[in-house]
Amino acid sequence: MLHKDDQLLKEQANEQIREHGSLVQRDPYRLHYHVMPPVGLLNDPNGLVYFNQLYHLFFQWNPFQTDHGSKFWAHMTSKDLIHWEWQPIALAPSDPFDKNGCYSGSAIVHENKLYLFYTGNVRDQAGNRESNQCLAISEDGITFEKKGPLFTVPEGYTPHFRDPKVWKENDMWYLVIGAQTEHLQGRALLYKSQNITEWQLVGEISDKEKPLTDFGYMWECPDLLLFDNQDVLLFSPQGIEPQAYQYHNIYQTGYLSGVLDRQTANFNHQEFIELDNGFDFYAPQTTVDGQGRRIMFGWMGLPETDEAFHPTKDYRWIHAMTIPRELTLKQGILYQQPVKELTQLRKEPLLNQQQKLVDEVVTLHEIHHDALEFIFQVHAIKGKSLEVSFSEHTKLVFNKEMQTLTLHRNSIKSYQSEARTTDLQELTELRVYLDVSSIEVFVNQGEKVFSARLFDAIPYHELTLQVNGTLDYHLQAWSLKNVMK
Ligand code: FRU
What we know:
Elements: H1 4-26, E1 40-51, E2 54-62, E3 72-78, E4 84-91, E5 102-110, E6 113-123, E7 129-138, E8 145-151, E9 162-169, E10 172-180, E11 186-193, E12 200-204, E13 218-227, E14 230-238, E15 254-260, E16 267-269, E17 273-274, E18 282-288, E19 294-299, E20 317-318, E21 325-330, E22 333-338, E23 346-364, E24 372-389, E25 395-399, E26 404-410, E27 417-423, E28 429-435, E29 438-443, E30 448-453, E31 463-480
Parallel strand pairs: 1-20
Antiparallel strand pairs: 1-2, 2-3, 3-4, 5-6, 6-7, 7-8, 9-10, 10-11, 11-12, 13-14, 14-15, 15-16, 15-17, 18-19, 19-21, 21-22, 23-31, 24-25, 24-28, 24-31, 25-26, 26-27, 28-29, 29-30
The structure holds beta-D-fructofuranose.
């Protein structure tokens, strides 16, 4: 189904890179080891898959503007999850069934070919939405042939029906997809197929005994993760109100863990848990790689709220992916750890110190780099609090009395200080990845994570530690390579 418009659109997109690429590269806030768009807007990770010894990462891309619009699927590949190569554009919104966007979806390998499932977003003349679940196939993993729609919205649901995620078990294919009921409630639906093209609706994924009926108006980007005999439904609900320390971003991302019955879609599960406690995280996607690891990328951003105020827009680009993370499940809790390959980014160590501090503020003069990793192991902490400052505005505060951990930053929109907090009984380790305009904090071996973009004055100041009480710690830090040039 290759036609002129498709080539023309891709050509116009490539022209944007040629025209504005050098401006984009001049942005001092450009990151050093995160996937970013070469120009324009990036949002969800799509089609994450390991195929023919390569990791393939696609993403939602608007090459023409730093706003949301008719999305393309950009395509990057990597041997090691660290060094990425730009590939020809995979999908352009050029057909009647996807003309207003090749929206999010997933990839699987079948008979040594790459299959992409995505949502063809269509607006009719009156502005009404249509949603087609489409297929595209590639033999070489580089050029994709669109095969058109496979199915559309089932009865009882609105056209907010998108983001198919496909996987295989035994001889059956399964697919989860985000949906909205006619009563405007968010859901995830389960489909199955024997031949990969004809899909049968199994039903709404729901706990028949205690259904989560009133939980937002739309669930985006569902993903079903299998760990031994436990299932995890990961999704991004919209329309959840803040509750204590939870759900303070415009939209959320989190998961339910339990056991999914593939025949009935009954899902006996625990409570919803937010996946990231920071400011900028949404629509993640996972895959199982050649080593059997469950790898996840998230969009280190969110739609709407702050987007108009990102300073990178002046340089014609916006948003980035998180670093790749490995997921494991322990007692129903998802742990996220930076993939081990990220240690390749380390340059010479900046610091390796074992110390005891009593009611003190110390400045770590060794650490004032734009891109760094540090591992802070807390052997013992007594007293009130511990504060780690990365800049004038960005700091992490562990309040031992309150049993909370808080990330403070300067708001992108208002320049006022803002905070995100999570309950934390004990602090044993902080592993922090700081890039030029982002921070990712992995707490206690990935039990909790904070992701956020930062537009502080760069280069960063020296790091400071402030202890209210006594602290016994081991701190290691490295400056990190720039692999995104
Ligand atoms: C999530 C999302 C998806 C949709 C895509 C469009 O951020 O809204 O539901 O497929 O982005 O770019």
